[in-house]
């Protein structure tokens, strides 16, 4: 198991195939990290589907308004919403979009990221300095690789639970 150095800045996502551990980067993107922890602590990410999963590219999830597969779920609307919190300003950095990094999903407006994020399946350096990187998978990438593909997938996978490691111990 990858060693958790900072439980307050570590996220554990439970998928159907196992746990994915994310090391967050608060020194790089403090607002994005804080938003993810806020939504995880509110259990807002629980049961949210992966609504856009492109082989060789990334798996996108995090639409807490429309993506919860247990609450008024409509797959066609998944990916169109955010959270009740205001959008976040871009926190671009020199951290590359490598395999396993977490990027903030947004519209064409760089300051429109809210709750949605994606996990890169491969090195996607064309995204560098255009989308905020705020974490990376340190354990369980093999489970991310098994997420059902599609835009949207006919039978999407979901984040069963999302927790801050400091709250689980």
From TrEMBL:
Protein keywords: Isomerase, Rotamase
Known catalytic reactions: [protein]-peptidylproline (omega=180) = [protein]-peptidylproline (omega=0)
Pfam families assigned to the protein according to its UniProt record, in alphabetical order: Pro_isomerase (PF00160)
EC numbers for this chain: 5.2.1.8
Domain (PPIase cyclophilin-type): residue spans on this chain: 18-169
InterPro entries attached to this UniProt entry: Cyclophilin-like_dom_sf (IPR029000), Cyclophilin-type_PPIase (IPR024936), Cyclophilin-type_PPIase_CS (IPR020892), Cyclophilin-type_PPIase_dom (IPR002130), Cyclophilin_A-like (IPR044666)
Broad EC category: isomerase
Gene Ontology terms, MF aspect: peptidyl-prolyl cis-trans isomerase activity
Similarity-based family: Belongs to the cyclophilin-type PPIase family.
Cited function: PPIases accelerate the folding of proteins. It catalyzes the cis-trans isomerization of proline imidic peptide bonds in oligopeptides.
Protein name listed in UniProt: Peptidyl-prolyl cis-trans isomerase
Organism: Cypionkella sinensis
């Amino acid at each position: 198991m990858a060693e958790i150095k900072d439980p307050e800045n570590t996220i554990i996502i439970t998928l159907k195939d196992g746990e994915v551990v994310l090391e967050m980067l608060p020194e790089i993107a403090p607002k994005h990290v804080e938003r993810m922890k806020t939504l995880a602590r509110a259990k807002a990410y629980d049961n949210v589907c992966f609504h856009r999963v492109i082989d060789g590219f990334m798996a996108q999830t995090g639409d807490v308004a429309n993506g919860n597969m247990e609450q008024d779920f409509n797959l066609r609307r998944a990916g169109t919403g955010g959270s009740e919190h205001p959008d976040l300003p871009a926190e671009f950095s020199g951290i590359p979009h490598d395999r396993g990094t977490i990027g903030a999903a947004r519209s064409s407006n760089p300051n429109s990221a809210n709750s949605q994020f994606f996990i890169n399946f491969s090195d996607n350096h064309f995204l560098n300095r255009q989308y905020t990187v705020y974490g990376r998978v340190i354990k369980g990438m093999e489970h991310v690789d098994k997420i059902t593909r599609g835009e949207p997938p006919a039978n999407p996978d979901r984040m069963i639970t999302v927790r801050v490691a400091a709250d689980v111990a």
